[in-house]
């Protein structure tokens, strides 16, 4: 695949690192930046033949197969529009839009143009995430009841993130987009997200947007998604997911505790990791940052999908659903009530509720709990199906 | 101290273990149970001189200095009433009441009787919790912004817990009482809890009460408390606290990951730990269960406080505040809105809001963020105090 | 118990903290230090009625039931001699002697005097250690094959430790005494330690004694003990044990990773923990230091044993065995060969070797390995009992 | 690169997975197995055009650029000889030889033939290892004093491993080759390994070779390497490295604790990970097994090196050094003494010893230790340069 890279900032460089590493076949062949000097610098650093300060020129470059959008949030829509016009496949960094309305327009553009629209939700491609999904599909943890995702750090790298107009919000839009899609995958993408309750506040920074938020997303099957996001966390970048199912639990720590620990008195100060705050004392680097964050597996899926003419794991449609959930979160933070997720284009299961199933112990009783006692006996707690009476029973 | 123990169930035995261990001076001298045989069995096991099936007899035993209530929730109030009548000091297991109204009556009883009322919130006495509080007091993590506490396990041991009438509810009243008081300590007991938002559901068990809930508690100073409680967790008993402050973070794992890991093929099956679900494969015992759960430090504080004629760290008043917060949680789970915490007897700071303070970079700018780049440069993100413009600046 | 405390240094204070905490019944009633001012200061701090600069005066104080030796290593023997003369029970800090010869004399003194001789090997009393021992006794990990104990930190607190004459050596005598006794407990105290191989070096410090050593101890039943000790470790105090058995594994982390993690930017600098090196960045405090290090359980066992007229878990005899193993380690570090453990007074099993038992698969074959394949099949690796041929076999 | 794969067993498949994943450019174009059916099966599974039961045919296939040896240990030498004859570049799985003599012949073959000889020491390519090496090069942990590597699991997958003649030994040759080269990298490849002390035993299995061993490798600069290897470990595959330097410490856990934890009651049994022993209870999968084990970075370095006409990080020469160290280990296990590493072809620093440097406190004193006390004072322990006297000093 020949790639046109739009943008030359922090994330664009992370993408370029990944794409040109590990003897991959795909190549960036041109880079666009509003600032010609930045385009040139990135082209030099990654040995690219072309660079330009014209977005159209980059997209329309004749060799380009797919356009990779790594621009600030408010520039996603115009970039997608230009790709649709040029009939070039497009893959876009997260979040897709600043709002569901914006995302929906982008979704319609790619579908109408018949081009590929891949949503670069990297954290749904981390190796641990992919393995977790496999375990869940195999039934290892039963039915998912709760799926939490947390991303917190001391705040983003670039000025535009802190400007609500350009970014579309604060920690919710920046980090919540990851968390919402992670939970949604765990719970099941076909299950309808019904409503959202969200707390958000600007606790520390002198900005308009929220720097800390916690949200709950209720799904049609009774499962609950949870996101915890903050730009006020001290200690590095905390990326964790937790899933509770009827038959098990999954805990994933993607960044700060991955089996790599270093203590240093501070000799030989070097770069530790994205958003690390200190370079002495106990440090927790990751082995291969891009890999831990899902980039290699994400690009593999995207380009394989284009070649195989199939959908990638994460599509523009998924990006739209995420934006719709985040819209409801922002609304709830204002109204202080649960707010419905407005989905004009829902493509999953239509059910808004599912029947509960209880485990029977015998014809007359439900099983509430079975427990092994220190002496080896089993204690049963049962509920009578009709009288509702709760009783204890011992089994040797 | 000579102690009358009311109750002979799981928690009563845990208390007895602790009190009669480690060459402590205090002694249980009588035990009461509704069922005489149970009282006798416990008395035999712990070598107690007396046992009885009359609560009054136990309380009024002439040698008794303090009464230890380890009864089901619906029996706390009558037991406290009996202690007040007998003018015997009383310490009561958690939660204090099933509702704030009940707790308030108990608070008034002890205060009117002039007796000591200690609230046995053991998880506010774990060694890790006490050390965390010390660090917070020293300012190690700055102002607390968020304090989460989580307790989840596969459900309680005794039948009465599962009966809403007797217990006062489900996972919220059973486990949330711990979590709410932990967060409240971290944030500051003098800070007023204002309102609560709570999701609760009965996801798995055939019961009326909730078996899973998540709640947020907003405090007057802008801090947010969070509780996560469940009777549907698989994998043991998960007890974790996390605190985020402006200058740092604290993560406490009190039970499932404490630096003790064991793999066994299953030979020699033995008791592992409270609420452990398996006895083969990888197991995570704790060294000294009572200690990790805070019992020794709790009783030490209670009896020292009685002797020194001072308040313990956790009083009936604290128990009342906890119940008031849980009442609001239950209401919010019904109304699906934030609900005010109704406090008829608030004794802390009266302020309902506090002014925010931002860090100035210079006379004209606030500092949003300072970041070390891989090349060693410092990047500043600043906001103009009057225009609101956000700019980036490099500092070498 | 009324206790005479000999010594007023770091460890003496740690002991005093423990003994006078948690409403324990036992009391220190006098303290001895060579320097009267130090004795007075400790007496003031712990509210002791008496203090003295005469060791004999302290020991012979009429109310004293038991003498607690917390003196530098070279003063243990004279102190024990004085106790034996006074017929006062004695408990002595680790290591018992600087050499086996010294330890043996102390052992003989207490046995001839008919007094109690308790060996204060605290790390064989940590809650995690006691629970591990229980699991091993229950057979959870089968026969112990290998037991490693590691203690490393940046070096001891007091000057006398660094002086080989007073301490008897370096990291081996200071830390190895713990590790050797931990491994010996795991493997079985009745199993004879046969020989030792040890590497030792002075890698960092300008001292005569070793600041780093690794040793292997071969036991009669084929099990291997291992110790890793250093005064050159950076990052705090690393206390870990690992045990491998035929049916399982135990990993214990007693200090640096116990489920308590804190990040701080450095505001509010306070004391973190014994031998912590930093007070900012990521810190790993322990909840209750004395408890994690085994002091409360150790004193409980010692005083219970005196009252019950039984041996404590760790006796002067154990201290002697440890010294004999360390003597062999020092010798091996010189000769660069395995050196026999010279035990003039071995009281355990006399066997120097045990027969091996292999698992049979059928009459003709031993089972080497059974393994589950990804497809669910079981693969067996077998060895013919007479021909010795090794074959693979599938079982569905 | 077009690759001929020799071998079709467990490791061959792991290699094939890696090479054909993540849109890599390099391709396996033919596979050889002694058993034609096995060659065919692998060719089918990975969609290879060719397969053969003639090693020469595979090597001499005209399109082949490089030969990848994934054969049992006793077949490495004949395979390398065939490559040398055919003048085809060769990369060979670990260990290079069964003995240093064998490895040296292979080294000479490739050097005389002028072909590329890459040593597939994957664990020196794990992302955590590469990042650790970078930190060490930057000086973050100062001079390395001790480097330990541990690999233990319940035993290998294939029958030939258990046959000493074919494999060259037991756990030492199979696992020790990894550990020795890991430590050697940490300490510095240019530093001469001088002598080895090793304990080895057959503790559990009915085999001739050792199933458990511990070894120490002394380097010319005073650093010590350590390996712990076993085929008798229960609990999965334990892969850990620990490095102690004068300024810091690195702890790497490559497999069993990487931030991914799962509890399952056992529903939906699936494959967990290489050498996992259980599929219920608490499990610790890795995200991307090949990546965690270093395969992608290893092949990238190998093929980049061929194209860039440079040495890879791990060469046949390194493989030879490793075998020489293991030879000394086997000898030491027999003689029970330290045994010299016999290196006929050492290419690093010739020094056999290095001078020690101590830190001066002032003209007259060395600094032994500086320590922060709880009250904030600094305590210094100093040694007089000429008298050798050790003193304590306080600094406020």
UniProtKB/TrEMBL annotation, chains A, B, C, D:
Gene3D superfamilies: Dihydrodipicolinate Reductase, domain 2, NAD(P)-binding Rossmann-like Domain. The keyword Oxidoreductase applies. Pfam families: GFO_IDH_MocA (PF01408), GFO_IDH_MocA_C3 (PF22725). Residues 133-250 form the GFO/IDH/MocA-like oxidoreductase domain. GO terms for biological process: NADPH regeneration. It comes from the Bacteria. Keywords: Oxidoreductase. One of its GO terms (molecular function) is oxidoreductase activity. Residues 1-114 form the Gfo/Idh/MocA-like oxidoreductase N-terminal domain. The keyword Oxidoreductase applies. GO terms for cellular component: cytoplasm. PANTHER family: BINDING ROSSMANN FOLD OXIDOREDUCTASE, PUTATIVE (AFU_ORTHOLOGUE AFUA_2G10240)-RELATED, NAD(P)-BINDING ROSSMANN-FOLD SUPERFAMILY PROTEIN-RELATED. This is Predicted dehydrogenase.
